[in-house]
Amino acid sequence: MPKHARCAVGFCDNDKRYPDLAYVRSHVNNLTFHKWPVDPKLAEIWRKQVAKTRGDVFNPSPGASGTFVCSNHFPLGRRTPENPKTDYPSIFMTVSDYLQKNSPKKRKANRWQEPGSSKCLLAPKIEECNDDCEGTDE
Ligand SMILES: [Zn+2]
Where do the coiled-coil regions begin and end (predicted)? Predict the structure, then answer.
């Protein structure tokens, strides 16, 4: 019974226990969590790839239970044992993916504004302040 069922890749929060919360990239048809490879050579390839995405020391042993990589990180959206060239994680989350995922309900305000009009349409309140501030002691 592995306690950890979270994708090992940095910036990816997908967790086997919470499929409803998973972030699925467009190239993935069916999100699955791939167990860490038992084959030492393959495990080392995976380790190097995943380690690049993490800030900590990442060194799971081959076949480690509780270490998973989700489908998002495979070029074809799944493992391809028949083709070693795509059978390791090589697609990683970017920070913007991560932020997007964590603020899906954020609405864009003032969408109607022209992209070029960067100036605020509201009258700045500074003018009121100026009246007060200009009254010096002279
Ligand atoms: Zn993942």
Answer: none
- How far is the centre of ligand 1, averaged over its atoms, from the C-alpha of 47 (Å)? 14
Taking a 5 Å cut-off on Cβ, the residues next to ion ligand 1 are 7, 9, 12, 14, 70, 72
Per-residue pLDDT reduced to its tens digit, 9-24: 998 999 999 989 999 9
Report, in angstroms and rounded to the nearest whole number, the Rg of the chain calculated over CA atoms.
Answer: 24
Neighbours of 73 (CB within 10 A): 25
Burial profile 85-96: b = 16 or more Cβ within 10 angstroms, e = fewer: eebbbebbbeee
The tens digit of pLDDT for each residue in 116-126 reads: 544 444 544 44
